[in-house]
Design brief:
With 492 residues, the protein is an alpha/beta fold. The protein is 40% helix and 19% strand. It has two domains: 8-266 and 476-491, Rossmann fold (3-Layer(aba) Sandwich); 275-472, 3-Layer(aba) Sandwich (Rossmann fold). The protein is built from 19 helices and 19 strands. A nine-stranded mixed sheet has the order 3-4-5-2-1-6-7-10-11, sandwiched between helices. The radius of gyration is 23 Å and the shape is globular.
Length: 492
């Protein structure tokens, strides 16, 4: 029987549980199945990284093909697997995604990714033509190449781009771009795409696949409503504001055309928000706290837990100097509080954390450990998220689901998902200001405020935990918005 043409082909560079480097993978693994449950005829297209066939029981399917890329013929194989009722097609190529994938010896930033994802886009183009979806929904900069190739080839499909993080745009210096990728050369030379592929900051003299994706999309959505408004403004480092990172002019034009929306990501909750489940969670929190007690001299003190990547986005505000010393030292000097940090990332920030592993009121573990991450999220009294920017964020949702109120910077999805004390229904604490010094002092003051509530008003702090545990940001709600505000309008 002939299969009904699919409505949506969801294209991603990673998808949990098969591959995961960041939040894109979680969204790709959780949103499409919910869309399917709500009646969307959707399939997923993703790369096949390394030896995942045996681990995840992928099935080889017919349809191998060959494409020419960078002057050589590349073999493409297809594998398949269902994920919660959604068909996932994996593109396999040994050169760019297999166990023998290329190793680039170059000082050019992002060269390996530019080559890898421009190749992937060319490989995806054949499948888009074959499946003829009514909507092609792509994620972040890697698939600006795909939308460009679709434009050149005259592929008739509506297009959606989700912005997960504008800080990574895939820029490559124009003079070397054609040497890196034949796809980039094609996009630079074709009259349909040459101007749209150029970074709007002309002094950079670079190509920008994220700009290309935005320009060629019928709808652009950011992963939270506040992030959708933030990227309309220019970057301002005098107040630690990231803004649109050079693309705000283009995004502003899309907004005026009615093409920009913000839809928060969801989260999969394991417990229903009942009194009984809340009491059980509090019991689990006590047990997790006991597991952490060995690392701290006074484990009974208020505990702030940080779980995340040790990178500038997450830790810069703690590293910044105020009154002659880093902000983290100001926090460590506040009596009767402890800190627990878990994460890996950039060497600069790993070393920064290690310097403050004092054995008194600060525990630092440089590791990527899911079990320990869960213990810290569960055992902490407060989840510390002093992010410079956070398009949506998942750590605060994980923490709240464990009855751990977050302390966050009021930015992006953190503003949309956390209600700050002392507002009614508060689920956590927050800070921000309009100057560099103001932001840093507001962070310190927010920690002091949380300490005051914890020790002087335990009933209120228990209420914060209860509110956090009862808060729900479900994929069901997110999917309803995608269907109503994105897909239905395009399918009309």
């Amino acid at each position: 029987m002939e299969q009904k043409p699919i409505d949506v082909l969801y294209v991603t560079s990673e998808i949990a549980p098969f591959s995961k480097a960041g939040g894109v993978a979680s969204v790709a693994g959780e949103l499409p199945p919910e869309l399917k449950r709500q009646g969307v005829n959707i399939e997923i297209l993703a790369p096949y990284y390394g030896p995942i066939e045996e681990k995840h029981n992928l099935k080889k399917i017919d349809g191998d093909y060959e494409i020419e890329f960078n002057g050589r013929k590349e073999q493409v194989q297809l594998y398949e697997r269902e994920l919660d009722g959604v068909r996932v097609t994996f593109i396999k190529n040994e050169t760019y995604f297999g166990t023998k994938q290329i190793h680039l010896h170059s000082d050019v930033p992002f060269e390996a990714d530019a080559r890898r994802f421009s190749f992937l886009s060319q490989a995806c183009l054949s499948i888009v033509k074959s499946k003829q979806p009514r909507i092609v929904h792509v994620n972040d900069w890697p698939f600006g190449y795909l939308l460009g190739l679709m434009k050149i080839e005259g592929v008739n499909a509506n297009t959606v781009t989700t912005i997960h993080n504008l800080n990574y745009q895939g820029n490559i210096w124009r003079p070397i771009a054609p040497k890196i990728s034949s796809v980039m050369k094609t996009l630079m030379e074709h009259p349909y795409t040459s101007e749209l592929f150029q970074d709007p900051r002309l002094e950079w003299d670079s190509v920008n696949p994220f700009r290309l994706a935005l320009e060629l999309s019928d709808v652009v959505n950011a992963v939270s409503p506040t992030y959708a408004t933030e990227i309309l403004e220019s970057e301002d480092q005098s107040r630690y504001f990231e803004g649109g990172k050079g693309l705000e002019g283009i995004i502003g034009r899309l907004c005026c055309q009615g093409k920009l929306i913000g839809i928060s990501n969801g989260y999969i909750y394991n417990e229903k928000p009942t009194e009984e489940n809340f009491r059980a969670m509090i019991s689990k929190k006590r047990n997790a706290r006991e597991e952490m007690s060995f690392a701290l001299k006074k484990p009974e003190n208020l505990l702030f837990g940080f779980v995340g990547r040790a990178v500038e986005q997450k830790l810069k505000l703690l590293k910044e100097e105020l009154d002659g010393k880093p902000v983290i030292e100001h926090l460590l000097e506040i009596p009767e509080i402890n800190f627990a940090f878990l994460g890996t990332g950039e060497k600069e920030y790993e070393e920064f954390l290690k310097q403050h592993h004092q054995g008194r009121n600060c525990s630092v573990i440089i590791d990527f450990d899911g079990g320990r991450a869960n213990t810290i999220n569960l055992g902490s009294d407060i989840c510390l998220m002093p992010s410079i920017h956070e398009p949506c964020g998942i750590t605060q949702l994980e923490a709240m689901a464990r009855a751990t109120p977050p302390l966050v910077r009021w930015t992006g999805g953190l503003r949309d998902t956390v209600i700050g004390y002392p507002l009614d229904g508060a689920t956590g604490f927050g800070f921000d200001a309009n100057s560099r010094e103001g932001v840093l002092r507001a962070l310190i003051n927010s920690v002091a405020e949380a300490k005051q509530v914890y020790y002087e008003n335990p009933k209120k702090f228990l209420e914060l935990k209860f509110n956090a545990f009862n808060t729900r940001f479900t994929w069901e709600d997110s999917a309803k918005r995608y269907i109503k505000e994105v897909y239905q309008n395009l399918l009309k």
